[in-house]
């Protein structure tokens, strides 16, 4: 069973990357002077990452640079979109009461800030990334960080949450979505945790969760009636999270192919790819080639998959699977990297993808873009939340469900 239907191959010649990967505040000035009023395309690199942390509170000394800033990423991304699942245990108290556990949320954001803004050891250049929004719904957290000089070009920032858990509405499963405009291009990022379960037919629950998120996620239209309100209305869309799709194989066969690192054979029986090819879910979406080991399920703080240690007895065995995925929709995104990190805090490994995004820019700094940008800078105080750090909170909004 082939996988080409799930891979997007954008011609590199159509994506002009020479100077746009490190575009600075003057990126709307360093545009050729011909056709000075016509839109111009620039390019920014986006890091999308997802990690199910299994309800484990991170230690203060946890270093997540291995995941966010691996040595082979050069230059670093300009935008980081980081999704977490199970940042709190999914017990009745956290699900029904909708406990915000703000301290856990702030702890993860503090670790992100430290990882992104530490000086680059190669050249000792300090980065300056700022959190523009951080939203938690029960165990799901979506945190978006942007290089500080790009903040002035962001507008129409908003968030939408959908609960798909118990009774079809509680937040133990579901999604947190964020949308904004960068220059004249709209972005939407979806972080989800879909229904679990390895039994035959459980994939249909996950399909239903995905369909419900697509239909129920709605953003405010803003001051203009033609602004986008649904996920697929946006120009660039990336979906990340613990999608929970498993592998259609007996455990023994899965284990054998895993030991031989026969990823292509295993992926022929990957539920997400099968459901997509049969037209049951995510029609028109794309995923990059998977050349890494399944991200689930490990013993915590171990290299061993759950059930593979003969010294430990278990009531039920859970076969490894690529539960954690990153997919995208539409044109204008070229995926340059898709792999996983090796942090061992939980029973999942984090995954990451690097995209080059095409962005439309108006050449006239006094035009429509400037009109809106000037107004989004002046956010009212009730949308702001102060943090005890050295960074301005003007661009950081923290909403709680």
TrEMBL record:
Keywords: Hydrolase. Residues 40-363 form the Inositol polyphosphate-related phosphatase domain. GO terms for molecular function: inositol-polyphosphate 5-phosphatase activity; phosphatidylinositol-3,4,5-trisphosphate 5-phosphatase activity; phosphatidylinositol-4,5-bisphosphate 5-phosphatase activity. One of its GO terms (biological process) is phosphatidylinositol dephosphorylation. It holds the Pfam family Exo_endo_phos2. It comes from the Eukaryota. SUPFAM superfamilies: DNase I-like (SSF56219). Transmembrane segments: none annotated. InterPro entries: Endo/exonu/phosph_ase_sf, IP5P_plant, IPPc. Belongs to the inositol polyphosphate 5-phosphatase family. This is PREDICTED: type.
């Amino acid at each position: 069973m082939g996988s080409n239907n799930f891979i997007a191959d954008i011609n590199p010649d159509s994506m002009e990357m020479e100077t746009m990967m490190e575009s600075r505040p003057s990126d709307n000035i360093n545009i050729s002077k011909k056709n000075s009023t016509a839109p111009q395309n620039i390019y920014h690199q986006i890091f999308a990452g997802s990690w199910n942390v299994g309800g484990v509170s991170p230690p203060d000394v946890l270093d997540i640079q291995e995941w966010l800033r691996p040595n082979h990423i050069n230059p670093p991304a300009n935008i980081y979109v980081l999704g977490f699942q199970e940042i709190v245990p999914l017990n009745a108290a956290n699900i029904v009461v909708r406990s915000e556990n703000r301290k856990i949320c702030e702890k993860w954001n503090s670790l992100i800030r430290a990882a992104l803004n530490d000086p680059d050891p190669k050249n000792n250049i300090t980065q300056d990334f700022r959190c523009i929004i951080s939203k938690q719904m029960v165990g799901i957290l979506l945190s978006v960080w942007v290089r500080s000089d790009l903040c002035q070009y962001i507008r129409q920032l908003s968030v939408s949450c959908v609960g798909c858990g118990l009774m079809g509405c509680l937040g133990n499963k579901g999604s947190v979505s964020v949308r904004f405009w960068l220059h004249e291009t709209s972005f939407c990022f979806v972080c989800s945790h879909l229904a679990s379960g390895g039994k035959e037919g459980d994939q249909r629950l996950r399909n239903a969760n995905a369909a419900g998120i697509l239909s129920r996620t709605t953003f405010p239209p803003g001051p203009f009636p033609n602004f986008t309100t649904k996920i697929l209305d946006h120009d660039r869309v990336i979906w990340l999270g613990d999608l929970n799709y498993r592998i259609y194989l007996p455990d023994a066969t899965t284990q054998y192919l895993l030991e031989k690192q026969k990823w292509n054979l295993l992926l022929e029986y990957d539920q997400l790819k099968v459901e997509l090819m049969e037209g049951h879910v995510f029609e028109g979406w794309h995923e990059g080639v998977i050349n890494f080991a399944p991200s689930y399920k490990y013993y915590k703080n171990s290299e061993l998959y759950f059930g593979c240690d003969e010294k430990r007895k278990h009531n039920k065995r859970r076969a490894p699977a690529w539960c954690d995925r990153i997919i995208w929709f539409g044109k204008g995104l070229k995926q340059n990297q898709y792999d996983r990190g090796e942090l061992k805090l939980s029973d999942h490994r984090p995954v990451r993808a690097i995209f080059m995004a095409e962005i439309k820019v108006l050449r006239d700094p006094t035009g429509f873009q400037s009109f809106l940008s000037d107004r989004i800078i002046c956010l009212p105080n009730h949308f702001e939340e102060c943090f005890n750090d050295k960074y301005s909170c003007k661009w950081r909004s923290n909403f709680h469900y």
